[in-house]
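ok trying again, last paste got cut off:
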Amino acid sequence: MMKNIIMKKFNFILLTAFCLTLLNPTFTPATMIEGGINTSEQAKNYCTVIDKSTRKPVSNARIRIPSTNYTVYSDINGHFELKTVINNQTILSVEKQNYKPFSMTLKRGANRVPFIVEIESSTPLDIGIETRLCHLGDNNYSNFSANAGQFMGAAVGPVYSQKFFIPASANTKQQYLVIGSIVGIDTAMARGMGQNQITTSFASPPAVYFNGQKIAEIQINGDNQRIRLPKHLVKYNQNNIITIKAGRNLMQTAYVDYDDIEFMNLSIQSVSISNGQQVSRR
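nice, full thing came through this time. structure:
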């Protein structure tokens, strides 16, 4: 009796599946998925670019890792994949028309972990100074220097200088020099924070000059460092000059040994004077 009942149930299941197939030709019985995950449906290792204000995806943004000459573009959903090996800390840059230049320092293995990049719309008073990766110094550096493994190309020398125009309409705003990313700094502070592995020496910090006057020293490596431009030094409706000088190895006295550094994405950004805050100073 029990055997007949089981056979009847089995035949009923077969008949139901057969009828569903006739009624719906696209119906297919579920396939067994080993381990509970169908590899064809696994989520991709996507990173995403979004608008900081609207939180919406940004398509066709150019994502670069200059140290490896790697470039990729975000798709219609703002997604992109880093199909490259990241063995050392390295700078990633994101560029999109009508947005402020963006860069960040990736950690080793960052290509294996999805992350979100927020970029901000530019304003008429934002001024781009430099989007290239710039290498300052003398090409004489230790492999234990901060981020030395990512240095790309020869140094242009120990000094970088660039002119830029500030319109008269910016007079009601406070201007800031924004350094998207800077690496390679081997100051005592950077060493104390574990940013390099040098134990026998340290360097003076890179110095920033605005229209010939020293306005800041950069003590540590990092992203989005902002330096207030003193209002009395700003030349409105004229060209202004930003200069960055590499630091020196303070333990070397026989000759001048410059500290090799790299930076990317220099820009001038303006904010209302009432909201201005000085975050870097001499």
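cool. Residues 2-23 form the longest helix (22 residues). The chain has two domains: 45-122, 123-282.
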